[in-house]
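Each lists chain and fold; for instance:
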Amino acid sequence: MRQASKAFLFLALIAGAFFVIDRFVAPIARENTPAQVIEAVGEKQISEESEEYVIDVVYPVTRESAVNADIELFMDEQIADFKKIVQETFDPRVAVGPYSLLTHFKTFSSGSLLSFEIVVSLDTGGAHPNHFVETRTYDMNTGERLTFENVFIPEAPARLSTLIQNDLLGRLSEVGSTVEWIEDGTEPVQENFEGFVISGDTIQFFFSPYHVAPYAAGVQSVTFPLVTLADIFTEEFKNKTS
């Protein structure tokens, strides 16, 4: 009986090596949310398992094809890059276990805007997994992705640098970082502030481990009311949030 169970499990793993599960999760908050966004967010799970690696990625799906295509392209790139790492570096003679690629996400909304925080965890046999945050914001009226350039004017990084530095430095012990680390990670360059989501009447910036604090401190975030940054938003973005 035990051998039969093992055989069944093995066949199930083989059959499920490339399975996809679609399921809808709890709808996002309905307050001030238009009909095209309500209950429009579900999730897709891709799981693969072998002696060399485990993949368990979960990412959002919507009823807007352009949004789905953009997110799926990002996820496909993560999986392809991970498999390349496995192929080039995995050595069963020294590995203590399979490499792994895991993801999960959170959803945020503001009017017709829908944002996602996607956390990617990559374990390639080091002292600990590596994590990073990817954010995406979309206008569900059009399917358009809103990038930093769509949301902020060119002069914005200088203002964001000051505001975010002040916030993190004011919580230095809570953040678990150093002045130098925070200052380096919030220099006034666009790439430092591209991780953001829009939630209600606020904007939240995310910083992956090592960006403004040590790995042990985890992901850091700073939130501002939209009105606080109104002077550095583009007219395009103001029209979408008015």
Residues 1-33 have pLDDT under 50 and may be disordered. Residues 38 and 232 are 29 Å apart (CA to CA). The two ends are 65 Å apart (CA to CA).
